[in-house]
Write a structure and sequence with these properties.
- This protein is α/β, with parallel strands linked by helices and about 350 residues long.
- The protein contains eight helices and eight strands, in the order ββαααβββββαααααβ.
- It has helices at about 85-100, 115-120, 135-150, 240-250, 255-265, 265-275, 290-305, 305-310, and strands at about 75, 80, 160, 200, 210-215, 215-220, 225, 360.
- The strands form four sheets. The protein has a two-stranded parallel sheet with strand order 1-8. Strands 2-3 form a two-stranded parallel sheet.
- Residues about 1-25 and about 30-70 have low confidence and may be disordered.
Length: about 350
C-alpha cells in the first residue's frame, strides 16, 4: 500500500462519467478543436498555489521580479528518459510526498496538498485556455508545483518534461509509463471504468491513488487513465510527431503559435489519455506536470528563434465572447488569480528572470 493503509476512495459508479451526459462535462478541452460530443466549460483561472516555506502554508507574497539579467546560471530542465533511475525515483517520491501533506485550502477537509493543484486549475471562467493567458498562466502554475516539491517535500532536482514527440507512434510505450521507473501505465479493464472511459491505474507508484475532485466538484475516486478509449482510436499522436511540432514552431506570431499548440498537443495528449485527463481537474495526475513542462519548453523554443522580438510578445483576444470587443492584452495585466500576489504577465514571459531562472 502506498501510504500504509488501504485507499479511502469511493468507487465511482460504472459509466457515471463515461459519456457527455454526465453532470461532469468535459471541461479541459476546447470544442473548437475536438468532437462536437464534447464541450468546453468550467475552465479556470481563478485560484493559484503559491508555495511557502512553512509545511502547511503555501500562500506567500514576493516582490515583483526584475527582468534584468540577474539570472546568470539558469538550471536546465531535462527530459524524463535522460535522467537516472535515482533521479526519477526522487521526483516521484516528492510527488507522493505532496499526497501526504494536508491541503492548504479550505475546499475539502480530507484533501491533500496534491489535491490543491487540480482544484485550483478547475475553478472559475476559462481565462487560461484559448486566450493569451494560456502559456504564462501554466508557466507560473508548474513553477508553483516545482516550489511545492522543493520547499515542502525537500526535492533537490528540477521540473522534468515528457517529450511526447519521441513516442508519437506508440504513446503507451513511452518511458514515462514504466511501472518501476515511471508513473505507471494504463487503467484497468474498461468494464471497471470510473470516469471518461478511464479506469484505476493498475500498476506503478500511482496505482489505487486517491484523488478528490472531478472538474470543480468534490468526488473522491481512484486516479484513472484510459488510453485511446475516449474516441475508440489508437493511442498515437500524428499531430504531436516531430514534423508536426516543427510546423507549430514555424508560427510567426504569439497567438498563432499558442492556438496551434493548444489545438494539437494540448488537446490530443489529454484526450488520448482519457480518464482524469479529460476534465479541468487534469492535474490530478502527477504526469500532467511533465506534459505542461513540455508545452512550456515548446514556448521557450519558439521564443529563442527570435528572442529579442518574441520574448515579450503577448497578443490575442482575452475572452471568448465573439459578439463583443475583447479587451486588449497587456504585459502589465495582473495574473487573474484571487489568491495571487500581484504578479504581472511581463514577469512570466522570460524563463531567465530572477523569478524562474531556467532554460531547456
Amino acid at each position: 500500500m502506498l501510504f500504509g493503509r488501504p485507499p479511502r476512495y469511493s468507487p465511482v459508479a460504472p459509466g457515471e462519467y463515461g459519456d457527455t451526459k454526465s453532470e461532469y462535462p468535459i471541461t479541459h478541452r476546447s470544442n473548437h478543436y475536438i468532437s462536437k460530443c464534447l464541450f468546453y466549460g468550467g475552465l479556470t483561472t481563478a485560484l493559484f498555489v503559491i508555495v511557502g516555506l512553512v509545511t502547511t502554508e503555501i500562500i506567500v507574497s514576493h516582490p515583483t521580479p526584475s527582468l534584468e539579467p540577474s539570472c546568470t546560471n539558469p538550471v536546465v530542465r531535462r527530459e524524463w528518459r535522460t535522467v537516472s533511475d535515482v533521479e526519477k525515483a526522487e521526483y516521484i517520491a516528492a510527488a507522493l510526498c505532496l499526497h501526504r501533506i494536508p491541503s492548504a485550502l479550505d475546499f475539502d477537509p480530507n484533501a491533500k496538498l496534491s489535491d490543491d493543484f487540480p482544484w485550483i486549475h478547475a475553478q472559475n471562467p476559462p481565462n487560461h485556455h484559448r486566450t493569451p493567458n494560456f502559456l504564462p498562466w501554466h508557466r507560473y502554475f508548474i513553477h508553483r508545483y516545482e516550489k511545492a516539491l522543493k520547499e515542502i517535500c525537500g526535492y533537490q532536482g528540477h521540473l522534468l518534461y515528457w517529450d511526447w514527440s519521441l513516442d508519437y507512434e506508440d504513446l503507451s510505450s513511452a518511458p514515462v509509463f514504466d511501472a518501476e521507473h515511471g508513473f505507471g501505465g494504463d487503467g484497468g479493464p474498461e468494464e471497471d471504468r470510473s470516469l471518461f472511459n478511464g479506469s484505476c491505474i493498475r500498476n506503478g507508484p500511482f496505482s489505487m491513488y486517491e484523488v478528490r475532485v472531478i472538474g470543480d466538484k468534490i468526488k473522491p475516486h481512484c486516479l484513472s487513465r484510459g488510453f485511446g478509449r475516449l474516441f475508440r482510436s489508437p493511442f498515437t499522436g500524428p499531430t504531436i510527431s516531430p514534423t508536426a511540432v516543427r510546423g507549430v514552431l514555424q508560427a510567426n506570431d504569439y497567438f498563432d503559435f499558442l492556438t496551434q499548440l493548444e489545438g494539437s498537443a494540448d488537446n490530443d495528449i489529454p484526450l488520448g489519455m482519457g480518464g482524469d485527463w479529460v476534465p479541468a481537474s487534469a492535474p490530478n495526475d502527477p504526469l500532467f506536470f511533465l506534459h505542461h513542462t513540455q508545452v512550456d519548453r515548446l514556448w521557450w523554443m519558439w521564443q529563442q528563434v527570435d528572442h529579442g522580438r518574441r520574448v515579450m510578445q503577448y497578443t490575442g483576444p482575452l475572452d471568448h465572447d465573439l459578439m463583443s470587443p475583447a479587451p486588449i492584452p497587456s504585459l502589465d495585466d495582473v495574473l487573474p488569480l484571487p489568491l495571487g500576489d500581484g504578479t504581472k504577465i511581463r514577469d512570466l514571459m522570460s524563463t531567465e528572470s530572477d523569478l524562474f531562472c531556467y532554460r531547456y
